[in-house]
């Protein structure tokens, strides 16, 4: 049984880390992500019942999600939302229930090691594959029109966004590519570390995605502070230089699409959301299933969507989760090198969600739940180590 669980756990993680928005591995109307989600929930629920014990934080997160979904679902119905749109809002948030199987799978220090190893390897794989594709475009070996059609028809039309017509594109799974870069940066010294960091940094810049690059830079500027950043070792200084000057050169010399259109769309969303604000919605929102004319379902700015549908109360609920993640990180003084990248990963998703909806969909939620379960294990491991001394 343990072997089966290990295989299922690794498959679930790999699908999350490289599967983008979940539509890449799709079979008819069923995605691999949904299938794994259902299988994992059923299996681990049975195993928890058999064990007769479940962690308190798992119950709190699961029950809180269910109660919030019921409340905001009924609020949406009261305000005239269709059941279909309410379900569309609840579906991505239902990944909070993944804590049920994630907490079961991540129980020992070696399980955390598996998580980190898969994040690093899958991110490196994505970076290498993306750079190979760009080399093929640059050398004329790959036709843009053919590749564009293949990606949108044969893989997923919702997971890729092309930057102009020169072959540059953004893939939703690139969030985990940058998270992998964070874990590589804070991994122990090795022969492959510097090469991996260089390749991942190049791939990140070549995506032409301002949000990824700027939020990655802002993350380290905020976490370390500019004075401390300048005192870091030479490799970090080289990385910072490559990131800054490479990005400036890249954005100046290449066609990365119409950014004015995406910016104006976000501004229009802001205007429409604030036009709809009333006394009640300011505090509790309009409910699930209630959008705005330009975005009837989901919005590019995740926090704006939460405010519109859940009000200040919803933002406070998310803020409570973020605070709990930080408290869990600070709960132990364990200086294990695995701890810091999980915290930076949380912060990166939170920052990135100011321009893209990551924190409130399976990609961001999975990072929160995986990181939370991992930190719980690392805290426990530290406590047990102290007790043995």
From TrEMBL:
Which residue ranges run through the membrane? Answer: 29-49, 56-75, 81-106, 127-148, 168-185, 197-226, 232-252, 273-292, 312-329, 341-359
Which spans of this chain does the record mark as coiled coil?
A: none
Q: Does the keyword Membrane apply?
A: yes
For this UniProt record, the keywords arranged alphabetically read as follows: Membrane, Transmembrane, Transmembrane helix
Taxonomic superkingdom: Bacteria
The answer to whether the entry has keyword Transcription is no
Q: What is this protein called?
A: O-antigen ligase-like membrane protein
């Amino acid at each position: 049984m343990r072997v089966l669980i290990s295989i299922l756990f690794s498959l679930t993680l790999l699908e999350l880390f490289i599967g983008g928005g979940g539509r890449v591995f799709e079979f008819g109307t069923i995605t691999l992500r949904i299938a794994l989600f259902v299988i994992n929930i059923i299996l681990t629920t049975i195993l928890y019942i058999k064990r007769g014990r479940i962690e308190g934080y798992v119950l709190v997160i699961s029950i809180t999600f269910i109660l919030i979904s019921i409340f905001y679902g009924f609020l949406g119905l009261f305000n005239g939302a269709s059941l279909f749109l309410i379900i569309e809002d609840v579906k991505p948030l239902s990944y909070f229930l993944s804590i049920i199987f994630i907490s079961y799978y991540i129980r020992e220090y070696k399980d955390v090691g598996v998580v980190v190893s898969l994040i690093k390897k899958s991110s490196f794989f994505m970076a290498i594959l993306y750079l190979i594709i760009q080399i093929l475009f640059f050398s004329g070996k790959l036709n843009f029109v053919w590749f564009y059609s293949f990606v949108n028809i044969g893989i997923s039309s919702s997971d890729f966004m092309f930057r102009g017509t020169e072959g540059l594109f953004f893939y939703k799974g690139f969030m985990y590519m940058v998270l992998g870069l964070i874990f590589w940066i804070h991994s122990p010294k090795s022969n492959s570390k510097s090469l991996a960091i260089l390749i991942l940094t190049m791939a990140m810049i070549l995506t032409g995605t301002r949000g990824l690059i700027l939020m990655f830079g802002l993350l380290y500027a905020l976490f370390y502070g500019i004075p401390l950043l300048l005192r870091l070792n030479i490799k970090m200084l080289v990385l910072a230089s490559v990131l800054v000057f490479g990005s400036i050169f890249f954005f100046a010399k290449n066609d990365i699409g119409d950014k004015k259109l995406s910016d104006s769309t976000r501004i229009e969303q802001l205007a429409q959301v604030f036009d709809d604000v009333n006394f009640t919605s300011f505090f509790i929102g309009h409910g699930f299933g209630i959008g705005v004319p330009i975005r009837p379902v989901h919005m590019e700015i995740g926090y704006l969507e939460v405010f519109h549908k859940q009000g200040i109360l919803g933002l406070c609920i998310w803020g409570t989760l973020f605070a709990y993640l930080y408290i869990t990180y600070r709960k132990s003084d364990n200086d294990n090198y695995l701890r810091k990248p999980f915290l930076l990963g949380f912060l990166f998703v939170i920052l990135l969600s100011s321009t893209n909806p990551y924190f409130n969909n399976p990609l961001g939620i999975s990072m929160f739940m995986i990181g939370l379960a991992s930190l719980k294990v690392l805290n426990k491991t530290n406590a047990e180590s102290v007790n043995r001394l």
